[in-house]
Amino acid sequence: MARGYRSYRGRRRKSKAFPVIMAVFILLLSLALLYLGLNDAIVFSSEGILIHNPFAKKEPEPSPSPSPTSKPDLVIESPTPEKTPEPSPTPTPKQSFSLNAAYLPDISDPVATAGIIQLADKGVINAVIIDMKHDDGTLGYISANQYAVQAGANVAEHDAREIVEQFRDAGLYLVARISAFKDNLVPRKVQSTSVKVQSGVIWLDRDYHGWMNPYLQEAQDYVSDIAVELADMGFDEILLENCCFPTIGRPQL
Fold this sequence. Notes:
This protein is α/β, with parallel strands linked by helices.
């Protein structure tokens, strides 16, 4: 068998175009990268094209130096002196005194009145209690109250003001006694002031005395008016007695 031989085609020559192509490719790639890197650094202005180096370190902008603060002037204020409160005047205590009083049931009795003044002059008494509204409702002076006039309570025939003035001149402390709601005149004549039973009839105690009802405003006003008149007359104090509901008889009626 004959020995085989491969056919000889000759030696291949390397292509000269390949290095050129690679060089062009690398050049284009470099230009592209350079363009992308310098895109933000290129500035078009009236002076032409300016290129900033993006890789150069930016110097930090100097921070503004703080302006020197001026120190406030030292001001020394003198303290305002506090006003010393003026001491309040010491109240003068009222001198207490004991009453050595005489009781005068009827201011119209001239003998009793003269005796009261004599006792005052001797220093035996320094006060007098005078009955100015009796339990039966009569008054020891002339009142201007319409209920007193209507009920006939003004029975006095003397000038009570003149007698009161004599007592005051003698240095006496004057106390007017008033029988407040025990009254046998006004409840009978002015029945709107009276204590009544359930049937509407005026209630009477076992002495057949009527009473004014302390709950009624008309009764309260009458007693108040009498007290004001006596105070205006010159009395220093008003003593109220029978200032209550009836205490005798059958008040439950």
